[in-house]
Write a structure and sequence with these properties.
The complex is a heterodimer of chains A (427) and B (82).
Chain A lengths: L8 E10 L2 E2 L1 H10 L4 E3 L1 H5 L6 E3 L4 H8 L2 H4 L4 H16 L15 E7 L4 H13 L10 H5 L3 H10 L5 E2 L7 H14 L5 E8 L3 H9 L30 E9 H6 L6 E10 L13 H15 L6 E5 L7 H13 L8 E3 L2 H4 L6 H15 L1 E2 L24 E2 L4 E8 L3 E9 L3
Parallel strand pairs in A: 5-6, 5-7, 10-11, 10-14
Antiparallel strand pairs in A: 1-2, 1-8, 1-9, 3-4, 7-8, 9-15, 12-13, 14-15
Chain B lengths: L2 H12 L29 H12 L5 H5 L4 H12 L1
Helix pairs in contact in B: 1-4
The chains are: A alpha/beta (427), B mainly alpha (82).
């Protein structure tokens, strides 16, 4: 193994299954047009959720049969299915060879696919009821592979015939972004030529219930789903749960150029850290110093100056934490008021995809950088008073963008932070 | 239910688990469930559960372990349902 820490890492493929679009073309169109993927779900009303709206990828029951044989689907829950669809799309988008059960193992490619909560749909619908009914012997063979933490990466690894390291990371809402950071470091260290990376999360009420119980979801917009996800708004009343999968194919520049791959963007700088539950940080809130250090470390890793960052795709969930996040960005970049970079929140359209959030939003970020636009952030016409000073930086409707960088951040329970600064591809 | 009806039903229950769907066209009593139909060995448990539900029988683990071919399954089920 040759270690080459200066190895450049680029993105050569993407796959997305989001509440407002499946596939890059549909997702880009939805982002540009401000199409919300948030809908009302009767099941949530019947279960007496406070928040009865959510973001769920549409038509998956039909789509999945175009991707996967029945034999595979018998043992695949929501997150595994979402991962497989986005993963196969990502693979094809990268122009990699056709795959079949008989194709060769690709020893040069691995995967880090995160899940925040994991297979709770399987546990809640099948495993727990049978165990409580003393029918363990009737569980069949498919429980473990669906409830094990690594379900999403394990299944995709088999579908694609991956021979590098294949694992699942989990760090709450930082998960997807952390997966991409880890994959980047993995390639930089020379451990693989290519890594699929991102996150996935299912759409089960069992996954969302705990957040509803915490009173962190918006319960006031059940009658108007498209207005429910309101990051940066004065009337934000909590986040809207989302789901899906977003994956990137990261590749060493050397490998990408060798096979003549299309390059979407380059990873400029990255960092993941933890605020240590000090200085105001806790299991559920970030230590501002941790966030600031994370952003600055990502800039330092890539030799990127604060004034080069023209846009930020924030974590921005639509809770009380949005103004604090912007304050932290402002401190980290040393830029405030009119000098603050453009900022938007993809969650305004798709909700908070939890373990999928980082993957979905990094896909949105790379699309924006590659195609030269910044999508509008929905539902923040009534900007939160604490962020009024950067009002001209908040993108309300899609605009052109020709900057060199977009920064993406994700923050999660456990006081964990992740930041990736994507660089426009220039040879 | 006669033996040929049991056979048809068994084939139908195994079908979703067969990785080699082409082999289904030439399926016979002698077809080896794991080798010919390329059923994942872990899924034999699910197939036996399907037999139990569909034929309203109970299959002991030792009996299940003895099922190698389609014919083995048909024979066992016919014995159980009398």
């Amino acid at each position: 193994m040759v270690t080459n820490d200066s190895r450049r890492v680029v993105i050569t493929g993407m796959g997305v299954l989001a509440p407002n679009g499946h596939g890059l073309e549909a997702f880009e169109a939805a982002l540009r047009a401000g199409v919300s993927g948030i809908r009302f779900y009767e099941e949530l009303e019947e279960l007496k959720f406070g928040c009865q709206v959510g973001g769920i990828p549409q038509d998956v029951e039909e789509i999945k049969h175009r991707y996967l044989p029945e034999e595979d689907l018998l043992a695949m829950n929501q997150a595994m299915t979402y991962t497989a669809i986005a993963g196969m799309d990502c693979w094809r988008d990268a122009g990699l060879p056709d795959i079949s059960p008989d194709s060769e193992v690709d020893w040069d490619t691995g995967a880090i696919i995160g899940a925040g909560i994991g297979g709770l749909d399987t546990a809640g619908d099948k495993l727990i009821p049978k165990v409580l009914a003393k029918r363990v012997r009737r569980l069949g063979s498919t429980m473990v592979e669906q409830v094990m933490g690594s379900a999403v990466s394990a299944k995709l690894g088999g579908i694609l015939g991956l021979g590098g390291q294949v694992y699942t990371n989990s760090s709450a809402c930082t998960t997807g972004t952390e997966a991409i950071v880890n994959a980047y470091l993995h390639i930089r260290e020379g451990r693989a030529k290519r890594m699929l990376a991102g996150g996935a999360e299912g759409s089960s009420p069992y996954i969302w219930a705990g957040f509803d119980g915490m009173r962190v979801l918006n319960t006031k917009s059940n009658a108007s789903p498209e207005l429910a996800s309101r990051p940066m708004s004065a009337s934000a009343g909590g986040f809207i749960p989302g789901s899906g999968a977003g994956l990137l194919l990261l590749e060493s520049l050397e490998s990408a150029q060798e096979r003549g791959a299309r390059i979407y963007a380059e990873i400029g700088g990255t960092n993941v850290n933890c605020g240590g539950h000090r200085g105001g940080g806790s299991m559920t809130a970030p230590n501002p110093e941790g966030v600031i250090r994370c952003v600055r470390a990502a800039m330092a890793e890539g030799g990127i100056q604060a004034d080069e960052i023209g846009a930020v795709n924030g974590h921005l969930t639509a809770t009380f934490a949005d103004p604090k996040e912007i304050e932290n960005w402002s401190k980290a970049l040393g830029r405030s008021g009119p000098d603050f970079p453009l900022i938007n929140s993809t969650k305004s359209m798709i909700g908070h995809g939890l373990g999928a959030a980082g993957g979905l939003e990094c896909t949105a970020t790379v699309l924006q950088l590659y195609k030269g636009f910044i999508h509008g952030s929905l539902n923040c016409e009534d900007l939160h008073p604490e962020i009024e000073s950067i009002k001209n930086s908040v993108v309300h409707s899609t605009c052109d963008y020709d900057g060199k960088y977009i920064a993406k951040s994700s923050f999660g329970f456990g006081d964990v932070n992740g930041c990736i600064i994507f660089r426009k591809w220039e040879n | 239910m006669n033996e040929s009806e049991v056979y048809e039903k068994v084939v139908g229950l195994i079908k979703p688990y067969a990785k080699n769907q082409d082999a289904l066209s030439s399926i016979s009593s002698e077809s080896n469930i794991l080798e010919d139909l390329e059923v994942n060995s872990a899924r034999l448990v699910d197939i036996v559960l399907a037999f139990e539900d569909d034929f309203d029988i109970e299959v002991e683990d030792d009996d299940a372990d003895a099922i190698i071919t389609i014919g083995d399954a048909v024979k066992l089920i016919c014995t159980k349902i009398g």
